[in-house]
């Protein structure tokens, strides 16, 4: 006579993750696995850590004038630490600011002013359009001036596209070429991929960070980001006020209909 086959008993389980007395018994006997730890404490810990870091770094990106305005709101020793940090950063930037303006170059100068100069750091070249109707080229030319003044430690050059490269099509202008250590490390043909005619300094900042010309925690970048956030917040607040006023006006009109 054959030995009886061991039958597996089917245990009813509604929700193996539920905190029930029945599930505790099943876990104890290994019928169901232990309940995984709740992610809630980890999430709460991450949120608290984020808030702590945000509070500690609340003065990042503020310039000396903005720090002075906080004298009555912040601890003096804490403010003085950031004042010294900003002063040191400004001194370092001033020391590195070898340029401060766009270099208009010609083809014979190209090798010396761009290729060879890039051994000392990234060099950015704007290949401009020869047509006054090219709006993108005019927009970038203006931003090039602003960036050169603001980032004096970075070399910005400019040359007409067809003068740099014979037969270079105007439809490809403006073209941004970034050189480093004698090679082209980045090329942007027209502004289509970086904002089009709406390009602004934040896009130039991003490009400079990408090619290693500046750091992502540069005080000038942080200040621009903070100013943009403040402006957006101001717009939201004004929009909320206008929306409330408009709603109140509609309510008043409705009330008049019942009089």
Instruction: List low-confidence stretches.
Output: none
The N- to C-terminal Cα distance equals: 99 Å
Shape: elongated
Residues in helices, as a percent range: 40-55%
Structural class: alpha/beta
Number of helices: 9
Number of strands: 5
The amount of beta strand, in percent, is: 5-15%
> Taking all residues together, what is the mean pLDDT?
79
Written as H for each helix and E for each strand, in order along the chain, the element string is HHHHEHEHEHEEHH
User: Biggest β-sheet: count, sense, barrel?
Assistant: 5 strands, mixed
Largest beta sheet: what is the strand line-up?
Answer: 1-3-2-4-5
Could you list some keywords that capture this structure?
about 260 residues; alpha/beta; 9 helices
Can you describe what's shown?
The chain has 259 residues and is an alpha/beta fold. The chain has nine helices and five strands. Strands 1-3-2-4-5 form a five-stranded mixed beta sheet, sandwiched between helices. It is elongated and about 85 Å long. It starts with 20 loop residues before the first helix and ends with a helix. The relative contact order is 0.08. The mean pLDDT is 79.
């Amino acid at each position: 006579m054959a030995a009886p086959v061991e039958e597996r008993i089917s245990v009813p389980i509604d929700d193996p993750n539920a905190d029930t007395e029945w599930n505790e018994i099943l876990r104890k006997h290994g019928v169901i696995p232990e309940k995984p730890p709740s992610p809630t404490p980890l999430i709460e810990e991450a949120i608290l850590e984020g808030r702590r870091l945000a509070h500690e770094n609340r003065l990042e990106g503020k310039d000396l004038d903005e720090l002075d305005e906080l004298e009555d709101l912040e601890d003096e020793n804490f403010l003085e630490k950031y004042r010294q940090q900003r002063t040191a950063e400004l001194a370092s930037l001033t020391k590195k600011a070898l340029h401060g303006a766009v270099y208009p170059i010609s083809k014979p100068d190209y090798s010396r002013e761009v290729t060879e100069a890039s051994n000392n750091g990234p060099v950015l070249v704007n290949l401009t359009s020869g047509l006054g109707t090219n709006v993108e080229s005019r927009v970038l030319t203006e931003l090039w001036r602003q960036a050169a003044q603001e980032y004096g430690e970075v070399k910005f050059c400019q040359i007409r596209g067809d003068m740099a490269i014979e037969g270079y099509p105007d439809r490809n202008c403006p073209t941004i070429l970034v050189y480093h250590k004698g090679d082209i490390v980045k090329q942007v043909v027209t502004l289509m991929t970086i904002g089009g005619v709406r390009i602004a300094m934040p896009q130039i900042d991003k490009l400079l960070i990408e090619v290693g010309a500046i750091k992502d925690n540069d005080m000038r970048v942080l200040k621009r980001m903070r100013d943009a956030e403040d402006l957006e917040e101001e717009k939201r607040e004004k929009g909320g006020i206008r929306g409330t006023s408009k709603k109140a006006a509609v309510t008043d009109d409705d009330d008049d209909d019942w009089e």
